[in-house]
Amino acid sequence: xxxxxxxxxxxxxxxxxxxxxxxxxxxxxxxxxxxxxxxxxxxxxxxxxxxxxxxxxxxxxxxxxxxxxxxxxxxxxxxxxxxxxxxxxxxxxxxxxxxxxxxxxxxxxxxxxxxxxxxxxxxxxxxxxxxxxxxxxxxxxxxxxxx
Length: 147
Hints:
This protein has helices at residues 25-34, 66-76, 128-137, and strands at 2-5, 38-41, 47-48, 64-65, 83-84, 103-105, 114-115, 125-126. The protein is 21% helix and 14% strand. The longest helix has 11 residues, at 66-76. The strands form 3 sheets. A 4-stranded parallel beta sheet has the order 5-2-1-6, with helices on one face. It has a single domain, classed as HAD superfamily/HAD-like (Rossmann fold, 3-Layer(aba) Sandwich). By secondary structure, it is of the alpha/beta class. The chain is built from 3 helices and 8 strands.
């Protein structure tokens, strides 16, 4: 199965433009890859080479390797990505810019289990223990080795 993953608030806590804190995604993502699933990083992060008005005061006049740093996070945690922002094979059958995937895990998705821990983030983030149980219940992830 191909799975789109948001980054901030989903794989790590919200802390843009920095990389957020660990919220428990690593072991679940590793199990997904080990069981043959393909992960696509599908995020609003992008690399910005110049300063300028973004229209959002919280990210005004910032530049950096924001997408690159997210990609580095996956590599540093030993989690291979199948794609970034798109399914690498979808160009064979569509010109749509929307990334194809069978499943999306995103803190802004209706029904995605969230938790609040003010010691980690001011904003809610994905509850990976509950996501793992949902993946097992749906038959997407084998229960063997589940937390």
